[in-house]
Specification:
mainly alpha; single chain; 434 Repressor (Amino-terminal Domain)
Length: 99
Amino acid sequence: MSTRFDDFLEEQLKDEEFRKEFEALQPEHAVIQAIIDARKESGLTQKELAEKTGIAQGDISKIEKGLANPSLKTLKRLAFGMGKVLKIEFVSIENTIKG
């Protein structure tokens, strides 16, 4: 199901410069979305995750808004607080290109 935003984004991605910038930011957005999805899947609020990890709720909020760049140590603490482990993987460029 397409949304107005999806249509807008598809149109913007036709611009080469915009597409390159968008693709350059994709890894950061993927990390942010993974954190948000994992937290919600764990049934935790930011406040509850803060209590479990010792990371300030405000800092978790900044991470989820893309206003902070968490270290690997912080990512591991967040994962552990959600009952998960952090997994980072490198994939071939050919596997990421949409055909």
